[in-house]
Amino acid sequence: MDYKLKVAEVVSQAVDGQLSVDEIVTKIEVPKSLELGDYAFPAFVLAKVLRKAPQMIAQELVEKMDQTGFEKIEAVGPYINFFLDKQAFSQDVLGQILDQADHYGDLDLGQGRQVPIDMSSPNIAKPMSMGHLRSTVIGNSLANILAKANYQPVKINHLGDWGTQFGKLMCAYKMWGSEEEVKKDPIGSLLHYYVRFHEEAESKPELDDQAREWFKRLEDGDEEANFLWKWFREESLKTFTKVYDRLGITFDSYNGEAFYNDKMNEIVDLLEDKGLLKESQGAQIVDLEKYNLNPALIKKSNGTTLYMTRDLAAALYRKRTYDFAQSLYVVGNEQSNHFKQLKAVLKEMGYDWSDDIHHIPFGLITQGGKKLSTRSGRIILLEEVLDEAVELAQKQIEEKNPSLANKEEVAKAVGVGAVVFHDLKNERLNNFDFDLQEVVRFEGETGPYVQYSHARAMSILRKAGKNLSGVQVNLNDPNAWETLRLLGDFDQIIKRAVGTYEPSVISKYAIHLAKAFNKYYAHTKVLVEDRELESRLALVQSVAIVLKESLRLLGVKAPDEM
Ligand code: ARG
Q1: Pair 63, 133 in one domain
Q2: What is the complex's ipTM, to 2 decimals?
């Protein structure tokens, strides 16, 4: 709920509208300590307009203010501090949460408009990198967050499934490959053929000619080439899907680079018609000097089209197909330039909707402070990471709650959830270090800690065994205030996450709320028969609802017991 807005309205009224509500909202602060109130307005921003000392302004305004809905409003030096009426606030917030359950915090920013999210997008016949994994997890969470704000996300896996490398791959497979091998370990065997091709081609340049021949056959629709291409793609996708399944992530489209094969001519023609194509050393380019960018390569001298050309075709296709409100690309920071060029070329083509295209970059995962790369041998195999995380979770459950009924299922939710949460905990552009022990801990700022707090709330509710529907909340406990305030912030948190494309806004909030709730629980006995029992349970249930919903937005499960 937007209580800030309410404060701004009160201020605006007191200054007879000399400063608009919108202006005032931007000036309102949240004091560091709750003792200084819930909101503060620095009166010195009015000093110029009212030509008085800020202290005076603060004093005079407070006298004029309508105090309904507030416990008190007081002037302290040049500040006006606002204390919300805790009773009214708790009735309002907890009432809404119990009533709306997992719809609490829903917004209508998107009005049902579609938002394609280009995410994951690994390359066929190559291992999925940590970058692709981050893209998958961040993209999925953004889809959940946007859906909560009533956008309609479309999760697109823009597979790297086209290019001259397929010629090499086919050539290598025909010479050294076997069907069983590929079926058994698609990515491993295909990668192996590809590497071997490069090794042997060094001394046998005729191999490169054969590879070019194979790629030409593929482009010309030759039956065998097409069959192999499809098969490599399918087998690779099976391996990727294992990872997606474990993360519980699905896609709405697997239209990859190949999908745009028959849509490239139109782009080249459009660029030509608009007089944007230039020749440079035999290649066709679009000059982007006025954007301070390198030229965009559209067609190589041998006539083959490029990554950029496909992305231009894809952007246009998505605009036509989804009439998007925004179009997102969750791709590593190292491709920033590519997406700047993409937007610039679309702008040059006269498409104003290029402003609605957003590259959502992210940083690297490091280990021991070093970049993970396939070449250095420092690859973390994702499947193994998830297996180990689940194993560690299982151990901790065994220690803490050996009699738990569905231990295995819970361990999966906790182990996988821990890895996902860790990825989404830091601002996405930051690089972060991956230390499995750290990730799966039940204490500290981890996914399991939030899950555990949710399970604790659920266990209190089970013990109480009360139906709370229609309960009259009457909560007068200062210990509960921090938790209550946070619960009331939820919709503003969603709004901020949408505006910044930052799942970390949600994960940080979830940690914050879990901490506040655990502090409350350490100070206050919830299960005591007195007049406030049901109100306390309403608070506990609200915490459970909002923690579970926060985790869901991140793509993390919240077991009822652990
Ligand atoms: N396959 C590319 C890679 O692995 C990522 C594709 C990102 N999406 C896009 N539309 N360019 O680098």
Answers
A1: no
A2: 0.99
